[in-house]
Amino acid sequence: MSPLKIKQGSNKHSAYNLRPTFSDIQETHTLAVLVENEPGVLARVIGLFSGRGYNIESLTVAEIDHEGHLSRITVVTTGTPQVIEQIKAQLGRIVPVHEVHDLTVEGRSVERELALIKVTGTGDKRVEALRLADIFRANVVDSTLESFVFELTGTPDKIDAFADLMRPLGLDDVARTGVAALARGA
């Protein structure tokens, strides 16, 4: 038997094994993009995502250096490792982009999001909503006889969990800022 011959039904060593070398598993990554604060930059960055069919789960943008005219765009996106690498490479080629950091792979980071959550209800549901808000350290920023507006800061998972618990109690509306993130340490 020749050493090149392999067992029938096995394509482990076949030249015709066309399995992709990259993982097909979807991963969520947080990207921090430092850009010039000038008209059209955000549109160009977002155009890169929409033009190639990449999804944006969260997006926050703010000027971080008034004198240097720099803004930080924080994007949470999902894709295969191959797609994430393509996104980072393509972002780096946009001229007003100074830096692209993948906070998910560069080490530990701090991620926070702010949410305003309106809950309407009376009686026991109202009492339960206040009890849960206390557990989650949510602040009451508006109150009427029929509703509360809670302010909650935390990870996206924490905000999702709070909203899920408020649904049966009368969740009426939710406004979220999107993720703000920074790398930990020096």
UniProtKB/TrEMBL annotation:
GO CC field: cytosol
Assigned keywords, A-Z: Amino-acid biosynthesis, Branched-chain amino acid biosynthesis, Transferase
Pfam families assigned to the protein according to its UniProt record, in alphabetical order: ACT_AHAS_ss, ALS_ss_C
MF terms (GO), sorted A to Z: acetolactate synthase activity; acetolactate synthase regulator activity
GO BP, sorted A to Z: isoleucine biosynthetic process; L-valine biosynthetic process
UniProt enzyme class: transferase
Superkingdom of origin organism: Bacteria
Catalytically driven reaction(s): 2 pyruvate + H(+) = (2S)-2-acetolactate + CO2
All copies of domain ACT, residue ranges: 30-105
Keyword Isomerase found: no
Pathway(s) it belongs to: Amino-acid biosynthesis; L-isoleucine biosynthesis; L-isoleucine from 2-oxobutanoate: step 1/4; Amino-acid biosynthesis; L-valine biosynthesis; L-valine from pyruvate: step 1/4
Record-listed E.C. numbers: 2.2.1.6
Assembly behavior: Dimer of large and small chains.
Function: Catalyzes the conversion of 2 pyruvate molecules into acetolactate in the first common step of the biosynthetic pathway of the branched-amino acids such as leucine, isoleucine, and valine.
Family label: Belongs to the acetolactate synthase small subunit family.
Stated name of the protein: Acetolactate synthase small subunit
Organism: Pelagimonas varians
